[in-house]
Structure formats: C-alpha cells, structure tokens
Amino acid sequence: MKSIQYAEAFEKLWSEESERKSQLTNRLYCIVFLFCNPISSVAFYLSGDSFFYTLFTTHLFSGLFLLLYLLLNYKKVITGHQMSFAAHVTLIFFYSYLLSLPHLSYVQSSLNLTLAIIFAGMILRWEFRYALIASVLPLVLYPLSIHFASDTSLTLFFEQGGVFVLVANCIFPVIVKLRYNKDKAEFYFRYTLQQQNEALAQQKHIAENATRAKSNFLSLMSHEIRTPLNGIVGIVHLMMQEENRSEPRSGELLHTLKYSADHMMTVVNDVLDFNKINSRHVVLDPQPFDPRQLFENLRKMFGPGAIEKGIELIFEIEPDLPDLLIADRMRLKQILKNLIHNGVKFTAEGFVRLKVEQKEITSDFVKLYFEVTDTGIGIHESEQREIFEVFTQTKASNQRENAGTGLGLAISRDLLQLFNSEIVLRSEPGKGSTFSFELTLRYSQSTETDYPATTLPTPPREGIKVLVVDDNRANIVLVTQLLKRRNLDFEIAVNGQEAYEMFAREKFDMVLMDLRMPVMDGFESTRMIRLLDKQVPVVALTASSFEDEKERAMSTGFSGYLTKPFIPEDFYNYILPFLGIAATDATE
C-alpha cells in the first residue's frame, strides 16, 4: 500500500515538474508555427507558384486555432502539453489538406514538413502516447490524402522528399520517448536524493535533540545528585573530625556512610566525565606540577586499601625524573587512579605495581613510560578489546563485590587519546594484567617557572567577612561550618537578588556563589556585583562540572570555580588563597 502511495505521489510531482519546466517550450512551439507557417509560404510566391495563395490562406486559418489553444492554456483550461499536442494534431490535418491539392513540386512542402517534425522533436517533452499519435497520423493521412484526393502520383511525393517526411515521423516518437525518460530519470534521482536529504536532516535533527536532551539531563542530574551529595560528604568529614565521640559504634557508622558517599561520588564523576569526553567538552589544561608529589598522593590513596586486602602496593619510579612536568595533572592522576584502582579491586593476592620510566629526554620534552601491573584475575584474550568499551566488565569480574560503572578503562582510553597516546593491555586469565602507555610531556628542571602562583601575595588580615549565597540548606550548613572552623565571619543569602542587595549595603571580602538559584541566578548576581566592585573574589560553588558552564562563569566575572561535592581539604586549599591565607597555615 505504501509503495502504491509513493508511486502515485511521485507521478503527481513529476507531472507538475514536467508541466512547469515545459511551459515555455510548449508556448514557443505554438508561437513559432503561428508565425513561421505563413512566412514559409513566401518561398512559393518567390518561385511563382500560384499555390502560394491557397497555402498562405490556409496557414492564416490554422493560426486561429493556435491562438485559441494559447488562450485556453493562458486561462489554465488546458495544460501546456495538451496545448502543444492539440496544435500539432491540428497542423497535421491542415498539412494533409494542403498535400491533397495540386502541386507543381513537393520539394518545398517536404522540406517544410521535415523541418517541422525535427523542430518538434527538439523542444517537445511529451509522454510517449502523445508522440505515437502524432507520428501515426501523418504516416496514415499524408499518403491517403495524396493518393485519393490529389491528381498527383504518390510516387512523385516520395521522389520529391516525401520519404524524408515519413522517416522523420517514424523517428519522432523514439526521440521524444528517450528525452522524456531521461528527464524523468533525472527528476527521480533528484526526488529520491531530496527525500534522502530530508530524511537525513530529520534524523540529524532528532539526533541533535537527543544529544541536547541527554546533555541537559546529565547536567540536571549532575546538579541534583551532586548537591545533596556535597552535604553528605562534607558533613561526614566534619563529624569525623569531632574529637568528642564517645561511642565506637557511631564511628563505624560514619566510616560506612563516608565509604558509601565516596563511592557514589566516584560513580557520578565517572558518568559525567565520560559524557564530557564523549561530547568533546574536555580540554587538557597543562600546568606545572611535581610528579613525585603526584605519585606519593596515589600511594597514600591506595595504600590502606592494599594493606586491608593483604596485597603489596609497589611504586617503581624513575629517580631522575624532571623536577616539574607540564601537563594536565588532574587528568593524568585520573588515568593512573583508574588503572591502580582496577588492579587493587581485582587482585586477591600478590601485588599491584606502578612503574614509571624515562625513555627519552630533549631540551624541552621528556618521554615517560607508565606501566600498571597486577597479579589479579586477568582478562581473557577474547575480552581484551571489549574491556575498553563503555559499561563493560570482564565476565570473571561480573560479581557483586566487584560491581562498578565499567567506565574507568573507557575514560582512561579516551583521556589518553587527548594526550595523543594509546593504552596497551597484556593479560592472561589467572595471571594478572599489565596496562601501559607512553606520554611525551614538556618539563622543567627548575622550580622557578613563569606560571602564576596559586596563592595571593597579600598577608592575612583580621575581620575577614564572607558572603555565602546558596538556596540549599545542607550546602549552607556545610560551607558555614567550614568557615567557622577557620574563624571567618559570614553572612547568608538564599538567592542572587538578596546577595546583590546585601553586597550593596555592606562590605564583604569574598562571595561564595551558587549558580542555579530562584529569583536571580548566580551569573546575573555576579554581573551586578561586578558593577559595584571589580576586585572582590567571587567564587562559584556549583554542582555543574561542564566546561562550557565554567567558561560562562569565568567570562561573567567569577574569580574561581569549585565543583561540588568537595571535601574540607579541597575547600580550604581553593578558597583560602583568595583571602591571602595559605591553605597550609589553616590546617588543624
């Protein structure tokens, strides 16, 4: 049924297209014969043939029919094809009448009739049935009119050019059919191509909407999950730092809560990191850092877990590494963290080893070889390609105790591609796995760099006051508790409008601003605050980790951007330098 409807729709469109494209030529055909037929009779006059008067009068009379057809077409009573076909058939009957009259010579008439059919074949775009009728009529009428109505021999007509007239009429329908089929095939190609383009454009639109919806959903999910998670993580850390805790059971419950919150934060970060990489929202941010400090932090991070499982955590680090590497430290740490985490998670006995070697070094760059080896469950060769796909785990690890997002290796692979590197896997089931990659990084052998310091040079001062702007109660409690522990005074605003009004009334040394709030969001509030004070630090505390939102915030006038959830150490390390207080000086 659909194919029939499709064919009918195509034929209708082709009919309209053919009529539109042939409108001019069909009218031209009638106009040419309207004027050229009387003019062609002049040749008879010049040759002294008395047949001129009959011929001229007949052509003037046939011209009246042509004018009528042109008028009907102009009034849209008949189509252009019907007009030219009617004109052609009418002229055939008039030509048949003229051929039946006495002729001194058929040469001129045969020439005119042959030229007429050639001209028609050149410009007309008829259907085959029109061309066939227009061809059969002269083949029948011309000989009959000469044979039965004329005193002239039919043989004389053929000898004086009649053969060419008949041959031209035989070829005419073939030529018209070929040209018609060619035009129709070209239209069909354009029609189907247009349909395909429209379908592709529609699918592209659907895909873009789906991608946009996915991005918006993940952005919303980021905010909705990270916001309460920030309160959980932060308050758990605060409670664990309390000295007066009399019941051991409460400490155990807090450790369990902290573990669950940290795990939830890891899952959310994995999903959002993968989405950002997949959406090309991740751009590496090269900054100088101490590689030894990075590896030491990784050792402290995974050491307790390795000890708890009874496995050995080994770090074999090249002793002659440069003092400073210039790269995206956070992304490099994320890659190594994912690989070491997998090693510890899937190793029941033996060891997990991080090996870092210096392969080559020039005056500007150093090539480093990283290798993470474990003696865990290993990966079967048939699964080694799939292990880097999204949400994929090995069959041997597909157990509740080893549950996870399955994103760690996929994220590590994609991040390494941003570093222009590839991850290599060697593994045997039951014998462990080795993940390795190489990075070529800029470096410096001196701690003196041209990069700006991360802390402000101003000395600490008394009476610091901070404006906290957030509409979430848990986040307000967390941030204000953190400020209290550093003896920092604060005021609270629950939306951007209230924050602006408070800032206009009194002096603040810093503004901690959420981005998404009712009444007025953080972007607009910061823009208005900047009209009052261009120097005061305004730091975004937000659950959105998308790079484009960070760029928007920084271009709006924010001084910094701290993503929720964060632990107290991250908060102090980031916030205090804006107040001229070294984070190390503020630890308890």
TrEMBL record:
Keyword terms, alphabetized: Kinase, Membrane, Phosphoprotein, Transferase, Transmembrane, Transmembrane helix, Two-component regulatory system
Keyword Zinc-finger among UniProt keywords: no
CDD domains assigned: HATPase_EvgS-ArcB-TorS-like, HisKA, REC_hyHK_CKI1_RcsC-like
Domain of life: Bacteria
Lineage: Bacteria, Pseudomonadati, Bacteroidota, Cytophagia, Cytophagales
Top EC class, one word: transferase
Protein name: histidine kinase
InterPro entries given in the database record: CheY-like_superfamily, HATPase_C_sf, HATPase_dom, His_kinase_dom, HisK_dim/P_dom, HisK_dim/P_sf, Sig_transdc_His_kin-like_C, Sig_transdc_resp-reg_receiver
EC number of this enzyme: 2.7.13.3
Reaction(s) the record says it catalyses: ATP + protein L-histidine = ADP + protein N-phospho-L-histidine
Molecular function GO terms recorded: protein histidine kinase activity
Transmembrane regions listed in the UniProt entry: 28-46, 52-71, 83-100, 131-149, 161-180
Domain Histidine kinase: 220-443
Residues modified as 4-aspartylphosphate: 514
PROSITE patterns named among the record's database cross-references: HIS_KIN (PS50109), RESPONSE_REGULATORY (PS50110)
Domain Response regulatory: 465-579
